[in-house]
Amino acid sequence: MRIIAISAVATLSLSACATPEPPEEGSPNRPLAVDLVCPAGEGGLMIALDPPVARQGAALTLTAFWFEGPHQPPEPVALACLRDVAVTPAGAATLSRDGRLRLAADAPSGTMLTVSARVLASQSSVSTLIVGRDEPVLTGTWRQDRVKCDPGREPGEPVRELKVTGDGRFNVTYQPFESYVDYWGPMTFDAATGAIVLTPEGGNFTPPLLDVEGTARLESETRLILEGVYLGDRNERNFEPRRDDKGEWVTDADGRPLVDRPVCTYEFVR
Q1: Which of 123, 127, 138, 250 meets the CB 3.0–4.6 Å disulfide criterion with 114?
Q2: Looking at the chain, which runs of residues are DSSP E strands?
Q3: Are 193 and 240 a contacting pair, CB within 8 Å?
Q4: pLDDT tens per residue, range 145-193
Q5: Closest CA to 219 of 181, 260, 268, 178
Q6: Strand duo 140-150 + 44-50: pairing
């Protein structure tokens, strides 16, 4: 099968700030209103793009936030407060004053689009891989929205995080907490057929019942459908063991009851 590279997920950088400075006269990022309040104290800038997929000819929205400390919620920052805004590679996209980033129809697919900016002394940048107009992009963090299984015994624990990285790897987490992950491994995806294979190679908890070969398709940039797979469950005991014609449990060579593995269709959102 023809295996395509999986697009890189957006990355953010955050740095500290120093002393305030007034807006530069004549700057394209000079405040548009006299009552505009820009960050003036200690803190750090973070910028982001939405959606995180940079398609040829598409429009993205640039947003900015200011962090004053680990226990303070981030505050939105008006784009007019941003200084030294730069978009690379040159000619790949244009940024309007209202934060709309329009990619060129011929933006170089397979290269990184980077937007950088500054508030005070705090620099931030966001990068994402430019992809073709119709290229499927699975990278990012997905959250289970619904699942339907055959037989109809649905998992007792949803997949709250399915992460796909740009280097062709995945991880699954049922209950995210800090950096905890349940299991992980390499992933292959054939864009022509939709065939997907997730191969667990390690984890803190790898369910004994898994079906890792199926198909994947995007209904939109924010909805992923996985069909013919089973991503496991922390509550395997919710499934009834297999019984024979006499109603007795069927066991393996070690005397452990066998549990039928469901085949499921998952819907994820991001």
Answers
A1: 127
A2: 11-16, 44-50, 54-55, 59-67, 75-76, 83-88, 93-95, 100-103, 112-119, 122-131, 140-150, 161-164, 169-173, 183-189, 195-198, 202-203, 213-220, 223-229, 263-269
A3: no
A4: 999 998 767 788 899 999 998 778 999 999 999 899 999 999 999 988 9
A5: 268
A6: unpaired
